[in-house]
DNA sequence: CTAAAACCTGACGTTGGCGTGAGGTGCAAG
DNA sequence: CTTGCACCTCACGCCAACGTCAGGTTTTAG
């Protein structure tokens, strides 16, 4: 399989695949003419890479995870690193949930403005239902299992 | 209130506050000597800005949201834009949930490697329980309400 | 055999939210 | 007055995952 086909099947750009090789995330054989040759499994591997990138892992971490998954060897300290990555992801999810709730408040306010805003404009504080609380959110619902 | 105090209370850098002004997200009066003067409400406003940035909104969108929230005026098309931002956030959350599940699979495999990997190394496909499916994930649980 | 895809290797550009000096000013205290 | 800290305005640096152009080679279709 050549690079263009892998790119199509995996839904990424050719440039991305070359970048993955440069970052040592995805190896390829070379044909006599110097062109990259991939096994079919490369497509799945690229999917995994994409998901890990989507999770916000840096390429260094992705590299280690890939080594672990595809070789069965466990480098020391990797587990701790994975756990901390997991924690970061959970934290990020909670951030996004909070932000989405906040945005929902704004949307609701926008959709039907409350009477207190119909006549009074340019309040110097946010008196809308989007309600920025003074110090700290109560951390409504978490997602950490 | 001067810039350093706002920065401390809001937990951001002075540089960030100046950047917000440059991006027209946070205005400030100036003292006779040219120093920025903020009302107390600026701290909450900065919190809101931070949350919107955390949600991945670009500064242009943040600017519009702020105008809406703090003035009560609804610019045309803003609602659609907010909805699409919300959708993006939800999509991002689902990506992260999927990635976290994937990572959990890797972690489980790492913690106690399955027998099939104890003797066979260098499988050309991922036969581990992290299990990259061939084409498309079934989109397990969504978070869009 | 030839033209057109598809591929190759550099190498520079992009994007955003700031970090980080450099070099100068405002302001309250001693 | 002068020390010293907080503040000011440029303006370049950064990081990551590629996009993109340039200029040349390999492979494939006819």
Automatic annotation (TrEMBL), chains A, B:
The keyword Membrane does not apply. InterPro entries: DNA-bd_dom_put_sf (IPR009061), MerR-type_HTH_dom (IPR000551), MerR_fam (IPR047057). Residues 110-145 are annotated as: Disordered. It holds the Pfam family MerR_1. PROSITE patterns: HTH_MERR_1, HTH_MERR_2. CDD domains: HTH_MerR-like_sg3 (cd01282). The keyword DNA-binding applies. Keywords: DNA-binding. Residues 1-68 form the HTH merR-type domain. SMART domains: HTH_MERR. This is MerR family transcriptional regulator. It comes from Streptomyces milbemycinicus.
């Amino acid at each position: 399989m050549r690079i263009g086909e892998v790119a199509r099947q995996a839904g990424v750009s050719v440039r991305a695949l070359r970048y993955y090789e440069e970052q040592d995330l995805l190896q390829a054989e070379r044909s006599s003419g110097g062109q990259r040759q991939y096994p079919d499994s490369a497509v799945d591997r690229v999917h995994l890479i994409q998901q890990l990138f989507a999770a916000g892992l840096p390429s260094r971490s992705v590299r280690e995870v890939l080594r672990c998954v595809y070789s069965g060897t466990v480098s020391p300290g990797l587990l701790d690193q994975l756990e901390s990555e997991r924690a970061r992801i959970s934290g990020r999810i909670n951030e996004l949930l909070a932000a989405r709730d906040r945005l929902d408040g704004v949307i609701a306010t926008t959709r039907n403005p409350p009477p207190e805003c119909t006549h009074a404009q340019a309040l110097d504080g946010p008196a809308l239902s989007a309600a920025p609380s003074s110090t700290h959110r109560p951390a409504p619902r978490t997602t950490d299992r």
